[in-house]
Fold these 3 entries.
Entry 1:
Amino acid sequence: MPIRTATARWQGNLTEGSGTIKTGKGGIQGNYSFKSRFEEGEGTNPEELIGAAHSGCFSMAFSKALSDEGFTPNSVETVAKVHMDKTDAGFSVTRIDLETVGDVPGIDDAAFQKIAVAAKEGCPISRLLSPGAEITLSAKLA
């Protein structure tokens, strides 16, 4: 398997400085700052990028799991809400809420839910993040 890379450059102090984040092949690139991370400023932040990685990984894992069970999805759309809180150890990602909607012909809700939970458990990014953060799942059929 290839090794994936990303880079970040920060200039200046914590509160007044600024930075850029870029994935290895340049598919995602953005500016970030103290305000975009800890307030509501313009730009991205590491937590949004974790959310993007998690929602993308889960959507693919869920699509595969559905197909493996004989249900080819038309689409799977997932939002990852990353919660960062101040803890005794400092700022920490404490919870990620995955909210997914699947357009999956021929499946009932019980099977959809069972496959969604299994996909969450098997998603590589979920496995990476779950020891340190609670991961919740809300799965709905379109």
Entry 2:
Amino acid sequence: MPNRPTLLLTTLLLSIALSAPLAAAPVIGEPAPEFELTDTAGTTHRLSDFRGRTVILEWTNHECPFVQKHYDSDNMQDQQRTAAGEHDAVWLTIISSKPGAQGHVGPEQADALTASRSAAPTAVLIDESGDVGRAYAAQVTPHMYIIDGEGTLVYMGGIDSNPSADPADIPTSTQYVLAALDDLAAGRAVAEPVTRPYGCTIKY
């Protein structure tokens, strides 16, 4: 019969295993995790539906001051339009806040937010379970990811280089998402494929 130290060690290892993530964090240069989510109109979207086009994923929480920084200044909307107009990219805004938590909204409220901010994502996707956010190891809002036309993850991190909530800092910041899109358009590898994300923690 196992002695007490052995039983304690076995219990500890089992606890660690059960609490570990079910999937490894995504890796730059590897296929991005496939997902299936419904948008605010009830349409189902899969990452594989957009094969052949660049896809940007934006995790959001409208109550987060770091998100507000980029929407109140129109920086996020400008990037959404640039991505679509200059790069023919798909921009998917994802809400992973659980019901009752900060940032959680239903489809109608999400559409109202999009309209009130003149935002221009391809679609707003609802991830109440948090499964897709966890699959991407999304930590904060905004947390940004770029997937190329082959389905490969080529960028993950912050929208820009200044981790503040002050819109006045935007003009002097490096805009990582736009820079990555320019690199892809020029046939170059993304110069800074991983950067530090900043913002409010996602309310899984």
Entry 3:
Amino acid sequence: MFKEINISDLEVNPFEAVGKQWMLITAGNSEKCNTMTASWGAMGVIWNKNTATCYVRPQRYTREFIDSEEYFSLSFLPEDSRAALSLCGSVSGRDCDKIKDAGLTALFDCDAPYFAESELILICRKLYKGEIAPEGFIDPAIDGNYAQKDYHYIYIGEIVKALVKLTGDK
């Protein structure tokens, strides 16, 4: 069971939540959805809106779902879900039902899928999509992250809802 909280009441360290805890970026609908693990992202304010920014490589299957839907979610799972996060980051939903294989339970809000096993969910409405352009790199070492020249797509979403798991729920 989840409780909606005001985004301004959210107490999260984005460096810990995104960079160390990781998150699942999920999009789709009740007929078909997909998720991927991410450890690159940001949270802040742009265009007078509370936003989350995520980065998705062009070959990721989840990108097709993000592109086709108005909403996506960012789900933050507890530490004991590390195996599920690892699986969702290492196999493609094109080849298997990784949500099922990871033992995750999809729920929906604002037509965005998220997971019952999460501690925190951010429901985001897409505002912007762009592609990282290598000619913009000021530090040439950054290009070392792109041996295959598969530059990330950038998605900025307005955080329209924040949900936290009620204490005691599994």
